[in-house]
């Protein structure tokens, strides 16, 4: 299956074989793309200093691209990954529509878990809005590296959130995940704890959380993996034939994050309507057909530690309230007192100092009782 340019170009003789490209898998997800108005976002972004953490990642970088179209006074892009940040800087500096906006962009290399350097960034740029996308996200890696997951996803978030309050940031928008709902893995539990911390803060800074599922084409997602496996002649590996996931495109996810940030009043958790769940096995079959490689096998490899068969955007006790946007819902979640949360995080930090994953995960389960690990190593803590 191929897509071709407009018919008028055929008549003019402008079509070449180079313009015929593979149909994007995004076109086959069975729903129309989500398109939002721009008025609310423009009001929140224009002529302001905006900080994006995790700016070199697939989500952070697209948030930055979209923000630049709204003419911020300064866009501060922060990431600890040197090579991806270098590539992203090169891209933006050589994008024609941004060529006159180089003075409006700043690129910072540092880690959100470094309190001294993060304070320097806030002191120098005084951001008015923060989009916090920096996080570890790969479930199997974080099962093996609980210390680092907690350090970055929980205490890195705490450092940025505390500085946001201290320096009078107007809005702090945290990018969370559907894996934070009834978590079965370390990564999801760390994101839920980060949600709990930011939502418990009482200050003039408005804290807003956005939850969404898997993003097509993002770093580590199944689509690039399947493409690579097909290019190598197969097989395509699916962990379980029954496994399903919600999917969005990167631009969709980021436009919804910006819109949710603009309408949030503080203490909000927004969940996105991502359409129907997609069976990963069906996705693999579609990609095999697109590649015209029916000979390539699809095999099951078994669920990985911490992996769910089905993702959720709401916990059992949570409900939603409609917002002005059909694709954005306001989640009604349990409220925590700030003193209670501070005490729980103090205990978690004390366990972090031991570097003992069992003790760290045990304390995480004390904070998030719905965290039921399906990792055989940590599941014994549930007994």
Could you describe the 3D structure shown?
There is one protein chain. The protein is an alpha/beta fold and 383 residues long. It has one domain (22-217, 247-275, 312-382): NAD(P)-binding Rossmann-like Domain (Rossmann fold), CATH 3.40.50.720. It is 40% helix and 17% strand. The protein is built from 14 helices and 17 strands. It has a nine-stranded mixed sheet with strand order 5-4-3-6-7-8-13-17-16, with helices on both faces. A two-stranded antiparallel ribbon has the order 1-2. Strands 9-12 form a two-stranded parallel ribbon. Helix 3 links the parallel strand 3 (49-53) and strand 4. Helix 2 packs across helix 10. The longest helix has 21 residues, at 146-166. Mean pLDDT is 85; it is low at 16-21.
Give the tags:
383 residues, alpha/beta, Rossmann fold, two-stranded antiparallel ribbon, 17 strands, 40% helix
By secondary-structure content and strand pairing, the structural class works out as alpha/beta
- The DSSP helix count reads 14
- State the CATH class: Alpha Beta
Helix coverage percent? 25-40%
What's the number of domains?
1
Main sheet characteristics: 9 strands, mixed
Spatial arrangement of strands, main beta sheet: 5-4-3-6-7-8-13-17-16
**Strand segment count:** 17
- Give the CATH H-level superfamily: NAD(P)-binding Rossmann-like Domain
Give the radius of gyration: 21 Å
* CATH fold category name: Rossmann fold
CATH architecture: 3-Layer(aba) Sandwich
Average pLDDT level:
85
Low-confidence stretches: 16-21
Distance from N terminus to C terminus (CA atoms, Å) equals: 52 Å
